[in-house]
């Protein structure tokens, strides 16, 4: 009898997981959120990337966001700048792990949206790195194995050292929103649990 109950619980858990992850409603939700992430990120990323390649102006200072076109052969803060193979390997592993999280672990629509932004931002940077291009304001040499960055933040007169692009914003924003939402849910969960137990 105990074994039967345990077996039923397992079946209920895996059945619930399967329907929440791969059921028709779940797949439609994921496709919609992924499409929204594409619309939010990719057109702006492509447009600004092409603009950065053609712009004769390298720098433009502003009070909050400064334009500074540059190429980055490394990853965060130009880390591993002279190790192309490791850069590609690390980025590919990270993007693959994000894809696994997106497919198997994101059940709520907002997590799907957040992790879609992370995935698309990482993937776009890899594609940008693979493409050989010419950046007008940096000279006549072809740029290889590098992503184009084009803006940085100035907060209260302090220049943030890193230069970003739109895909970087997608990655950072998606990851930050996912973490913050998770923390909020952890804080709220005990209160929801108490309400349910009080109703019973």
UniProtKB/TrEMBL annotation:
Q: One MF term in GO for this entry?
A: aspartic-type endopeptidase activity
* Identification of the protein by name: Uncharacterized protein
InterPro entries, per database record? Peptidase_A8
In terms of PANTHER family, this protein maps to: LIPOPROTEIN SIGNAL PEPTIDASE
Concerning Pfam families, the annotation shows:
Peptidase_A8
What keyword terms does UniProt attach to this protein?
Aspartyl protease, Cell membrane, Hydrolase, Membrane, Protease, Transmembrane, Transmembrane helix
Source species: uncultured Mycoplasmataceae bacterium
Q: Which GO terms describe its biological process?
A: proteolysis
Q: Which family does it belong to?
A: Belongs to the peptidase A8 family.
